[in-house]
TrEMBL record:
Protein name, per record: Iron-siderophore ABC transporter substrate-binding protein
Annotated keywords: Coiled coil, Ion transport, Iron, Iron transport, Signal, Transport
Coiled-coil boundaries: 141-168
Chief location bin: other
Fe/B12 periplasmic-binding domain: residues covered: 36-298
Keyword Ion transport carried by entry: yes
CDD domains assigned: FhuD
Keyword field contains Ribosomal protein: no
Location in the cell: Cell envelope
Annotated source species: Sulfitobacter aestuarii
Protein family according to the UniProt entry: Belongs to the bacterial solute-binding protein 8 family.
Domain of life according to the entry: Bacteria
Extent of the signal sequence: 1-18
């Protein structure tokens, strides 16, 4: 239980990484394109890797390889400690040209600026569109690293693939794809439900799927609810993104067994994908949701 609590706090302390309005602070440095970049959260890690750039340092690599997975993290990346409390000595030892961060408090920013130039992005907020924010950050990083053309090409490719995935889903369900609630199973009594301003909800919209359990906008786009809330899904489907925070104990509970979606075989697990990631996470969510739903349609 203690380990679960620590993991939960770790994931939610800095779980969510992509965002909006680009720059907040930037220490003056070389005008040259940075080659050695340290990132302080997983969303920024994704953004760099999606541009074909390997950061020299990133946080909590073992957890990244469990919770994020794609894009794959090269072995050359050094672990800089916690997302909420990076190791400044480790960062300094990597001699970065640039540090990329989101939502830093002034004290932490001041310490980092003594190591290298820092670029800070405004991250997830209830008051802005998190998905548009992620795109802004992606394009800003592309400009910083001289890869603007590549970023636009990958965005165009994503748009095309989203359209293809949508068509394949509607074909699989003969034009009647069920509404879907996307969740993470917190424990045997509660779930995180993704609603407005979340990457999973945006992926459902891109696939032309109605959210079966809409939630109001929030900073992270996820709302903690009791497991019984899934009764409200009714005739819709439920997709739970792995890994489950407390294992699979929930599947043995009476509430779970009596959920309408479970009894009607409208439940599926999605492969791990980071729901607070970079802009191209939109496509990664759409892929795993399509796979889960197509398996359900058979």
């Amino acid at each position: 239980m203690i380990r679960l609590l620590i993991l939960t706090l770790s994931l939610l302390a800095n779980p969510l990484g992509a965002a909006t309005a680009p720059e907040r602070h930037e220490k003056q440095g070389s005008a040259q394109v940075p080659e050695r970049i340290v990132v302080l959260d997983w969303a920024l890690t994704e953004q760099l890797l999606d541009l074909g750039i390997t950061p020299v340092g990133a946080p909590e690599l073992a957890l990244y390889r469990e919770w994020v997975i794609d894009p794959a993290l090269p072995e050359s990346v050094a672990d800089i400690g916690l997302r909420s409390e990076p190791n400044l000595e480790q960062i300094a030892s990597l001699a970065p040209d640039l540090i990329l961060a989101s939502d830093l408090d002034p004290a932490q920013l001041a310490r980092l600026e003594r190591v290298a130039p820092v670029r800070v992005f405004e991250a997830f907020s209830k008051d802005h569109d998190n998905i548009a924010a992620a795109r802004d950050i992606f394009e800003t990083i592309a400009q910083l690293t001289g890869r603007a053309a590549l970023a636009e090409a990958r965005i165009s490719a994503m748009t095309a693939e989203l359209s293809a995935l949508r068509q394949s889903l509607f074909a699989a369900f003969n034009g009647e794809v069920p509404s879907v609630a996307v969740v993470r199973l917190r424990d045997d009594a509660g779930v995180w439900i993704y609603g407005a301003n979340s990457m999973p909800a945006a992926a459902l919209e891109a696939l032309g799927i109605q959210n079966a359990l809409p939630q109001p906008p929030s900073r992270w786009g996820a709302v903690q609810r009791p497991l019984s809330a899934l009764i409200e899904v009714g005739t819709g489907a439920v997709i739970a993104i792995r890994p489950h925070m407390a294992g699979t104990a929930v599947f043995d509970t009476p509430i779970w067994r009596h959920l309408p979606a479970v009894q009607a075989d409208r439940f599926a697990e999605a492969a791990p994908v980071w729901s607070y990631g970079g802009y191209l996470s939109l496509l990664r969510h759409a892929r795993v949701f399509t796979q889960a739903l197509q398996a359900m349609s058979r």
